[in-house]
Amino acid sequence: MLEKLVQAGLVKTADDIFRLKKESLAQLEGLGLKSASNLIKSINSARRVSFDRFLIALSLPRIGSEKARQLAVRFKSFPALLEASPEELDRLPDFGQETAIALRAWLTNPANLDLVKQLLDAGVEIISDQRPINNQLKGQKFALTGTLREPRLAIKKRIESYGGRVIDHLSKQVDYLIVGQNPGHKLDQAQAMGLKILSETDFEKLLNS
């Protein structure tokens, strides 16, 4: 069917699929009004797509279904993914520097960004994925102190993407305190409570364990 649509000049780019009209389809040989209506219904049902499936459809370099799921869970939206640095991408499980660089190159290519814009303008709706990447940190609570290399909001999102939570105030319910440069009084409190102390390097090791 796609080949027939391309040959008829109805589809030239991916977004054209979502701009098809029943009347135009009905003119195709062997299709008819009923078949055209059914095809339009199928296309309309495909307008709402999960973020990971949207990324897979874009044929991102070095990104298969598992990595697409990780990106969807970690960044939640395409605008957020656009702001991701190579360092953030590199830290995702099984990504690595080459994948991060290749993905950033794709995301900064104007032609690719125009394709995404055209798909969204044509009515494609991306559904945010709220699942954790995995449950490695499920049920575990973290607190932060000091000047950290990574923005606190980014660290919070990373912890949540692995199933954990970030707590503002220390208590014995906190499992780990992540400590940056020049830590505040939280470090003394955590040591007095007997909480586990992690440097940022320790935190990375915990995620990769």
Gyration radius over CA: 23 Å
N-to-C order of helices and strands: HHHEHHHHHHEEHEEHEH
What is the level-2 CATH architecture name of the largest domain?
Answer: Orthogonal Bundle
Distance between the termini: 47 Å
Class from secondary-structure proportions: alpha/beta
Strand content: 5-15%
Low-confidence stretches: none
CATH topology of the largest domain: DNA polymerase, domain 1
Q: Biggest sheet: strands side by side, in what order?
A: 4-3-5-6
CATH-wise, what's the superfamily of the largest domain?
A: 5' to 3' exonuclease, C-terminal subdomain
Task: Look at the structure and give the CATH class of the largest domain.
Answer: Mainly Alpha
Shape: elongated
Largest sheet: 4 strands, parallel
- Helical residue percent band: 40-55%
Count of DSSP strands = 6
Describe the protein's architecture and organization.
The chain has 209 residues and is of the alpha/beta class. It has three domains: 2-46, no CATH class; 49-127, Orthogonal Bundle (DNA polymerase, domain 1); 141-208, BRCT domain (Rossmann fold, 3-Layer(aba) Sandwich), CATH 3.40.50. Helix content is 50%, strand content 10%. It is built from twelve helices and six strands. It has helices at 2-7, 22-26, 32-45, 51-57, 65-75, 78-82, 86-90, 96-107, 110-121, 152-161, 185-193, 200-208; strands at 48-50, 125-127, 141-145, 165-166, 176-179, 196-199. The strands form two sheets. Strands 4-3-5-6 form a four-stranded parallel sheet, with helices on both faces. A two-stranded parallel ribbon has the order 1-2. Helix 10 links the parallel strand 3 (141-145) and strand 4. The longest helix is centred in the N-terminal third of the chain and has 14 residues, at 32-45. It is elongated and about 80 Å long. The mean pLDDT is 90.
